Amino acid sequence: MTHSSRQSKAIVSNGKGQYEQVTLTVMPPQEGEVRVKILASGLCHTDWDSIQNWNKTFVVGHEGAGVIDAVGEGVQGLCVGDKVILNWSIPCGHCFACQQGNVHICENHSPVCGNGLCGHAHAGATTQNGQSVERSFHLGTLSEYTVVKAAAIVKFEQDVPFSSASIVGCGVMTGYGSVVNAAQLKAGSTVCVIGCGGVGLNVIQAARISGARKIIAIDINQERLAQAKQFGATHGLISIQDDVDFLQMRDLVREMTDGRGADYAFECTAIPALGSAPLALIRNAGTAVQVSGIEQRIDFNCELFEWDKIYLNPLYGKCNPQVDFPALLDLYCSGQLKLDELVTKTYSLENVAQGFNDMLNGRIAKGVVVFS
């Protein structure tokens, strides 16, 4: 089938810590690819960090939902008009990690832990003034159109607003999957969640859905604790200033958990100083999960591991997109998973600066850019 190119407004990083809105040319998909008309794109701290630190030109954005605009040769099971969520962790299906069932850490396609090169659609799919422009995390969702590999697509038929569907492919999946896939939380457990932003709220509601008996939310902001209770937290604790090692918080949690500590604790702040905090809050043989993706060096006091404690650092909630995304949307449709409530505010492409500002200043749980 012959397709024409599309002109596409997009947010592009200039490689110098700034970004601008430009008009791109998005070409037809080649073999094994699809072109998607993006209808909503979530804003994430990772987007801002990439603008500040990647030192190259690229189309910003890695959370998105929309409809298929064109289908390349050899693509099966996907048609023009299909509603889709984009997934940045694209499995190749045949590397060692994929064969072991760890498709989220694909050795060939992952932009985080693989070589990252093979996950992109063809280099000339997105151009500006005739020059190829890379797409963030293989996707580049802050653009009216994008071309991706068919393996980056998860089709859905449920009645879900695109603004809500768009956030499934990062923050929702990371929080939910860290509880369900990584920690495999047991019903009746006690849980601590450090940080009640967008990811933390998804940890909280995943713990609730999994049957946790007591969910203790911890944050520096009282308003966030109030919101955490709307998502399923049973208790809230304001973080204690200068309690960097969380020893005072540990004592408070022990008072609430029969003197032994929580069964599970999840760190969702991305603050390096709090990397070891979940270990302080769990009981012997409990499980601590570092959800936020801290990559800086952290010095641990090995006494925190006493005794038989487990510390997990999962990527993307160990996501299997073709299994997990439909399950999340089914939970939404049954009223168990809150998505609409996570989207605090929506923006246009023209006022994305306000969206980043609101996000960086903690005014929103999740912001979404909605395309007309």
TrEMBL record:
Alphabetical list of SUPFAM superfamilies matching this protein: GroES-like, NAD(P)-binding Rossmann-fold domains
Keywords, in A-Z order: Metal-binding, NAD, Oxidoreductase, Zinc
Names of required cofactors: Zn(2+)
UniProt domain Enoyl reductase (ER): residue ranges: 17-369
UniProt family annotation: Belongs to the zinc-containing alcohol dehydrogenase family.
Protein name: Zn-dependent alcohol dehydrogenase
